């Protein structure tokens, strides 16, 4: 009886957990405009006022939102647009055009996309007809015919704004800014970029037409706020169906924030990056460990997640190498020490390896040269070593100059964790002269 | 050439006539009549339901033809409440070129086709209606009259449903037969049978593979002239309202408001031909009324009218009496083909009684205005005579159908003479008029803008790009007007706000004005080069000059000229400048090479009555090509006497001619140079004061401060205005009480200047994470160690590890450090090589070392 009850309990539990996973994953992976904004109230106010003036008064504006990656630029603009569209008189009244510098890689494509999104009349289905020049003059004509009071304001959102500055002549930017500075259709041009030197990229005429409004997002919060964000991000919303479970979950989250080891983990993470996306990554990794048998996130989960996050990817590769390949890397390390970072070739490495094998090694088999060559090439494929110049037909493979892409500390750390590393190899690694 | 005066010349006001009928199902008021008053009050056109009307289209000479089905007021449309529902007709030139062969013969010049395509949006703004027109239906075996020179009558023989031409169905034909009848709701019995019922169509191919054509082919097709075959015909049919169709369509039309409009337009776009048109008709007769409506009422007056002096007009109220219907329909069945003959040949003209005296008094005024709208008045006179004759004819026709044939001849003669008179009046129209029209185009477009959604609805069949109206949809909600002083100031400070005068550029203005004026007066050509850094008012000054000259030209102080503007930045490629010039000059479309040839021909050969062309070339430097042929041509044309071309060029650098132009180009450019100096602080101050003349929003000190700041930086007036605008926002934001925002102070301005010009690097460094900061320190340490301004990542990494150890930070792994490095690189705090170089990538600082040190101090 009781076992059945616990079984059904388990089922309910599983149900809740899958919901928890869904809600939290959505929160971590999507930039939903529902999540809260942290510490950008001033900037938000500036932006929303600006958009409102465009939407309601028909005032043209241009603004750049600048901030490092993951500082919430897109979230800010999405929030602002969402709020704007909730105003009744505005929602029917505003056209939006979203462009991304990574997608619209030249003005021709960008123009087609604008025409498509504005639904102008030379659009058939999803296709825009006409040549580039025709499209440009058509669009300009369309925008020129508007005026402040009667035509529908258009909000242009240019993601990865800096890439638009690389278009030929900056035609698109010039025209957008020019319209925003003249009595035509009201435009709000909003550029999102992570480059602080964005204004230097603009051509002087384009720059003069840009209003020089900049909204900076700088992740200016400190660690206490970071903790708060952590807590908020992991907590379940009040709408969650089961109150008791929500309570328990949130209590657990509260405990976590007070836990010393968790704080340490977070502090470490915070030190590396204030980027909220990296926090999401950490929480996502921790969340993945939540199952029916392990229903709550624990400090250990977070620690493990942090370890995964901060893992050195190259050291991981080294762990998977064969002993021969490790030996070659150690030989290269010694060559680097001897010749002060000068490039080396296969022959030098092979000689170094031979020396070690002949004088010292007991556990390492003296491999044939082609075998060693094969191992060397494998290292090259893994990009642990890199040729100095392009491989040409003329140079023999043995004599091609190479550089090691591993730091000494990395090699030593990797060796310590390397499973079943022969002692003599380890000794050789610590000192090239150990065989003397 | 038929030329239909559209609203280009005069503004018209539209008002309903008669009481509204409340439509219970549709919940809006429907009307039977609408009057169009042309500005100045001279003329008033009455348009009734059931008449054929001309509707404003892209092409002035071929407006759309349609039959008015319903007039109603729609409150859901905020701007244009007056709506109309129409049944479209299509001209042959609007049929897609690939389908034209289906007709199997050459179309008559005045032939139109019943547009049988229910998907076509027939809900239009009533304010696009230009005038009414006469449309006559012909049986399939009737020939379109050839000798009739009255262009205002159009003939319908076939219907076009996007696939085939078919003869008009008997029902349709019957409807055409009906005398026009006021109420669209009134169902008529289908009495008349046409001879051509069921007879084979003209089309050779019935089933054609439908395909959506590309617009290119369409646009070309539009350019091919329609064959001007003069029609031969003996009989015409009077058209009248077709109620059935309207009701069929009404269901589909009702759901058009709001977004669905777009969809309608969309679906139509996919079917390229969809082109319905109002029937062409003579316009310009004041207070035209549907001739047929008056019916017998007029009969008594008709004879009097005939004798009356031209200025004395009989006015008939044209409320259609319901009792008439039976009589009229009866008559229709009797004389289906004749009933409307005369009335179609001669437009009817009925004046309302209230207007008689008014009109008489206004007549002299109308004569005075002849200069401005000459041919409108001319035509009016001819119409007056025609009108009287027509009225009489109708009277006769209504009473005794036998006499019609006798009466027909004189009617035809008179109508001929009338149209001849018209034709004679049309050719002498100076070329200037037509170009003036094209110049005025934008103003008319603007006015149509105020009645939103009319254009998208009215032209729901933009099968070709040429027909697509480039227009952003208009807003549903009126833009709010500024409420507070600060908002008012902000509006005036916007760069787009055009000041009454351009302060501080008087000298430059005078120079350019004198230059252009002298060229205009001399009837010669020339070039001028204007240079100056951005934001010094070059383009604005030239615009101002052109505006003043246009005013002067209107006052006949200088000869009329045509003004064209091109901008190098608005071109995709330098050679496109030819295309743009040609299009603005003549409306033609051509490829770049062809356009260049046409322009050369135009400018280098003697023309009959050339008027000077003023061409403004903005951002000249972008027209640079390897061969410099574009610049060469632009500067070469003005040197020819026949060209009469004045070229004003604008660029940023003063030495552009010497720097980038070949000798032969710069020599043609000549030495007329003008350079705009950056504004000084006092000039900037004056500009601001001038803009804020009646608005007290700024402290005087504040204005002076911003003027000095900007003058020291760049002298860019745009910057100055932008800073002030931002300052008003800051002021508004900082004063929490919205009712008393107060003045913009120096503090607000300083904050605005700070926001716009302060470098953000230091804040960015201050706000970066611990590891990022220590990485920057490591870079500094490495630079100091090596004495170079560049280091590889590996070197910095070892420094970084050491630093972290010193500061007690956990050991940073290589991956973490690499992430930190690329993060700093993406912000451009560092300049880094692509990360595939891995350990060997070179790192440089994008900020000065001192700045980094300063930022990392605490």
From TrEMBL, chain A:
Q: Does the keyword Oxidoreductase apply?
A: no
Start and end of every AAA+ ATPase domain? 59-202
| CDD domains documented for this protein | AAA
User: Which Pfam families is this protein grouped with?
Assistant: AAA_16, ORC4_C
Biological process terms in GO annotation = DNA replication initiation
Q: Which SUPFAM superfamilies match?
A: P-loop containing nucleoside triphosphate hydrolases
Which top-rank group of organisms is this from?
Eukaryota
Q: Which GO terms describe its cellular component?
A: chromosome, telomeric region; cytosol; nuclear origin of replication recognition complex; nucleolus; nucleoplasm
Q: What is its main location?
A: nucleus
Keyword annotations: ATP-binding, DNA replication, DNA-binding, Nucleotide-binding, Nucleus
Which positions, given as ranges, span the membrane?
Answer: none
**SMART domains in alphabetical order:** AAA
Q: Which family does it belong to?
A: Belongs to the ORC4 family.
> PANTHER family in the record, alphabetically?
ORIGIN RECOGNITION COMPLEX SUBUNIT 4
What does this protein's UniProt record list under function?
Component of the origin recognition complex (ORC) that binds origins of replication.
Assembly and interactions? Answer: Component of ORC, a complex composed of at least 6 subunits: ORC1, ORC2, ORC3, ORC4, ORC5 and ORC6. ORC is regulated in a cell-cycle dependent manner. It is sequentially assembled at the exit from anaphase of mitosis and disassembled as cells enter S phase. Interacts with DBF4. Interacts with POLQ.
The protein in question is named Origin recognition complex subunit 4
Question: Which species is the source of this protein?
Answer: Ursus maritimus (Polar bear)
* Annotated gene: ORC4
From TrEMBL, chain B:
Q: Specify where it is mainly localized.
A: nucleus
Biased composition of type Low complexity is found at 446-461
Q: Where is the composition biased (Basic and acidic residues)?
A: 207-216, 302-314
Q: Which residues form the BAH domain?
A: 45-171
- Where is this chain's protein located in or outside the cell? Nucleus
Instruction: Please give the PROSITE patterns that the UniProt record associates with this protein.
Output: BAH
Q: Which keywords does the record carry?
A: ATP-binding, DNA replication, DNA-binding, Magnesium, Metal-binding, Nucleotide-binding, Nucleus, Phosphoprotein
List, alphabetically, the PANTHER family matched: CELL DIVISION CONTROL PROTEIN 6-RELATED, ORIGIN RECOGNITION COMPLEX SUBUNIT 1
Give the protein's biological function: Component of the origin recognition complex (ORC) that binds origins of replication. DNA-binding is ATP-dependent, however specific DNA sequences that define origins of replication have not been identified so far. ORC is required to assemble the pre-replication complex necessary to initiate DNA replication.
Q: Which family does it belong to?
A: Belongs to the ORC1 family.
Assembly, in brief, is:
Component of ORC, a complex composed of at least 6 subunits: ORC1, ORC2, ORC3, ORC4, ORC5 and ORC6. ORC is regulated in a cell-cycle dependent manner. It is sequentially assembled at the exit from anaphase of mitosis and disassembled as cells enter S phase. Interacts with CDC6 and KAT7/HBO1. Interacts with LRWD1 predominantly during the G1 phase and with less affinity during mitosis, when phosphorylated.
Q: What is this protein called?
A: Origin recognition complex subunit 1
The gene from which this protein is expressed is: ORC1
């Amino acid at each position: 009886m009781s076992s059945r009850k616990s079984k059904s309990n388990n089922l309910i539990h599983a149900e809740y957990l899958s919901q928890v996973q869904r809600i939290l994953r959505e929160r971590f992976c999507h930039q939903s405009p529902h999540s809260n904004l942290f510490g950008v109230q001033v900037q938000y106010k500036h932006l929303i006022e600006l958009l409102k003036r465009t939407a309601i008064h028909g005032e043209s504006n241009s603004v750049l939102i600048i901030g490092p990656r993951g500082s919430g630029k897109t979230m800010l603009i999405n929030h602002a647009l969402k709020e704007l569209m909730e105003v009744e008189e505005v929602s029917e009244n505003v056209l939006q055009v979203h462009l991304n510098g990574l997608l619209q890689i030249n003005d021709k494509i960008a123009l087609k996309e604008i025409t498509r999104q504005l639904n102008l009349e030379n659009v058939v289905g999803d296709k825009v007809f006409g040549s580039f020049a025709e499209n440009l003059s058509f669009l300009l004509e369309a925008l020129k015919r508007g005026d402040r009071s009667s035509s529908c304001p258009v909000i242009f959102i240019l993601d990865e704004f800096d890439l638009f500055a690389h278009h030929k002549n900056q035609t698109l930017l010039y025209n957008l800014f020019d319209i925003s500075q003249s009595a035509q259709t009201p435009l709000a041009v909003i550029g999102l970029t992570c480059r602080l030197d964005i204004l230097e990229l603009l051509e002087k005429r384009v720059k003069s037409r840009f209003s020089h409004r900049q909204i900076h997002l700088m992740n200016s919060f400190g660690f206490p706020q970071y903790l708060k964000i952590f807590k908020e991000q992991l907590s379940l919303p009040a709408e969650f169906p089961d109150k008791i479970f929500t309570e328990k979950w949130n209590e657990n989250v509260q405990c976590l924030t007070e836990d010393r080891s968790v704080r340490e983990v977070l502090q470490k993470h915070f030190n590396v990056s204030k980027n909220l996306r990296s926090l999401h990554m950490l929480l996502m990794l921790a969340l993945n460990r939540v199952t029916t048998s392990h229903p709550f996130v624990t400090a250990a989960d977070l620690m493990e997640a942090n370890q995964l996050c901060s893992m050195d990817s190259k050291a991981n590769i080294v762990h998977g190498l064969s002993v021969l390949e490790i030996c070659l890397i150690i030989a290269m390390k010694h060559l680097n020490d001897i010749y002060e970072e000068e490039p080396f070739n296969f022959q030098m490495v092979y000689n170094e390896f031979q020396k070690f094998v002949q004088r010292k090694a007991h556990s390492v088999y003296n491999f044939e040269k082609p075998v060693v060559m094969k191992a060397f090439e494998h290292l090259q494929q893994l990009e642990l070593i890199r040729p100095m110049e392009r491989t040409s037909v003329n140079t023999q493979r043995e004599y091609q100059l190479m550089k090691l892409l591993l730091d000494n500390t990395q090699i030593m750390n990797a060796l310590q964790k390397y499973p079943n590393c022969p002692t003599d190899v380890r000794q050789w690694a610590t000192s090239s002269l150990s065989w003397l | 050439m038929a030329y239909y005066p559209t609203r280009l010349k005069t503004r018209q006001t539209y008002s309903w006539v008669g009481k509204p009928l409340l439509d219970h199902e549709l919940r809006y008021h429907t009307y039977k009549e609408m009057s169009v008053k042309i500005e100045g009050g001279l003329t008033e056109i009455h348009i009734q339901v059931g008449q054929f009307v001309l509707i404003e289209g892209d092409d002035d000479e071929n407006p759309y033809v349609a039959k008015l089905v319903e007039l109603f007021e729609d409150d859901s449309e905020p701007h244009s409440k007056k709506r109309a529902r129409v049944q479209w007709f299509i001209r042959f030139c609007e049929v897609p070129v690939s389908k034209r062969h289906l007709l199997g013969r050459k179309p008559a010049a005045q032939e139109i086709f019943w547009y049988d395509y229910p998907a076509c949006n027939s809900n239009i703004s009533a304010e696009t209606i230009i005038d009414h027109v006469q449309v006559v239906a012909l049986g399939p075996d009737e020939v379109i009259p050839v000798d009739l020179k009255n262009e205002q009558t159009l003939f319908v023989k076939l219907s076009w449903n996007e696939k085939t031409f078919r003869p008009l169905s008997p029902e349709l034909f019957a409807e055409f037969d009906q005398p026009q009848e006021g109420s669209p709701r009134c169902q008529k019995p289908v009495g008349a049978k046409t001879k051509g019922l069921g007879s084979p169509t003209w089309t050779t191919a019935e089933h054609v593979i439908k395909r959506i054509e590309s617009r290119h082919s369409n646009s070309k097709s539009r350019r091919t002239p329609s064959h001007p075959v003069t029609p031969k015909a003996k009989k015409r049919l009077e058209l009248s309202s077709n109620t059935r169709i309207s009701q069929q369509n009404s269901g589909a039309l009702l759901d058009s408001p709001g977004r669905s409009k777009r969809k309608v337009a969309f679906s139509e776009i996919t079917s390229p031909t969809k082109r319905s048109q109002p029937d062409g008709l003579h316009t310009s007769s004041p207070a035209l009324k549907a001739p047929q409506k008056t019916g017998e009422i007029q009969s008594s007056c008709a004879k009097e009218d005939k004798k009356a002096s031209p200025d004395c007009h009989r006015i008939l109220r044209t409320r259609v009496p319901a009792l008439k219907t039976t009589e009229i329909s009866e008559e229709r069945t009797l004389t289906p083909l004749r009933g409307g003959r005369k009335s179609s040949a001669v437009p009817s003209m009925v004046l309302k009684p209230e207007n008689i005296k008014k009109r008489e008094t206004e007549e002299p005024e109308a004569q005075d205005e002849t200069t401005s709208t000459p041919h409108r008045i001319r035509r009016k006179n001819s119409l007056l005579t025609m009108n009287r004759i027509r009225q009489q004819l109708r009277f006769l026709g209504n009473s005794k159908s036998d006499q019609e044939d006798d009466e027909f001849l004189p009617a035809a003669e008179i109508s001929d003479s009338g149209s001849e008179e018209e034709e004679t009046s049309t050719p002498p129209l100076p070329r200037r008029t037509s170009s003036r029209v094209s110049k005025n185009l934008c103003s008319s477009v603007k006015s149509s803008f105020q009645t939103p959604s009319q254009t998208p609805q009215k032209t729901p069949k933009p099968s070709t790009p040429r027909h697509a109206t480039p227009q952003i949809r208009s807003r549903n909600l009126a833009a709010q007007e500024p409420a507070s002083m600060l908002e008012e100031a902000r509006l005036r400070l916007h760069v787009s706000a055009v000041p009454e005068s351009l302060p501080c550029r008087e000298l430059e203005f005078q120079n350019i004005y004198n230059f252009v004026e002298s060229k205009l007066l001399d009837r010669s050509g020339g070039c001028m080069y204007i240079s100056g850094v951005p934001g010094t008012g070059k383009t604005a000054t030239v615009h101002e000059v052109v505006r003043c000259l246009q005013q002067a030209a209107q006052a006949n102080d200088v000869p009329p000229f045509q003004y064209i503007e091109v901008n190098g930045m608005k071109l995709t490629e330098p050679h496109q400048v030819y295309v743009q010039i040609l299009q603005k000059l003549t409306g033609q479309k051509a490829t770049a090479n062809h356009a260049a040839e046409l322009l050369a021909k135009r400018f280098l050969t003697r023309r009959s009555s050339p008027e000077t062309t003023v061409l403004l070339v903005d951002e000249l430097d972008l027209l640079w090509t390897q061969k410099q042929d574009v610049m060469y041509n632009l500067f070469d044309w003005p040197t020819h006497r026949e060209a009469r071309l004045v070229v004003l060029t604008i660029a940023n650098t003063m030495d552009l001619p010497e720097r980038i132009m070949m000798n032969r180009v710069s020599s043609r450019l000549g030495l007329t140079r003008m350079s705009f100096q950056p504004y000084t602080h006092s000039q900037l101050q004056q500009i601001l004061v001038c803009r804020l003349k009646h608005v007290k929003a700024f402290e005087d000190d504040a204005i002076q401060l911003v003027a000095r700041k900007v003058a020291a930086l760049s002298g860019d007036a745009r910057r100055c205005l932008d800073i002030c605008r931002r300052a008003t926002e800051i002021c508004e934001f900082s004063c929490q009480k919205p009712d008393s925002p107060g003045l913009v102070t120096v503090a607000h301005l300083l904050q605005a200047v700070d926001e716009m010009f302060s470098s953000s690097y230091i804040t960015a460094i201050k706000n970066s994470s611990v590891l990022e900061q220590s990485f920057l320190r490591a870079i500094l340490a490495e630079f100091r160690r090596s004495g170079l301004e560049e280091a590889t990542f590996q070197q910095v990494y070892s420094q970084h590890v050491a630093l972290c150890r010193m500061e007690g930070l956990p050991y940073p792994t290589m991956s973490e450090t690499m992430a930190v490095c690329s993060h700093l690189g993406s912000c451009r705090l560092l300049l880094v090589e692509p990360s595939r170089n891995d350990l060997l990538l070179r790192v440089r600082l994008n900020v000065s070392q001192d700045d980094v040190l300063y930022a990392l101090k605490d």
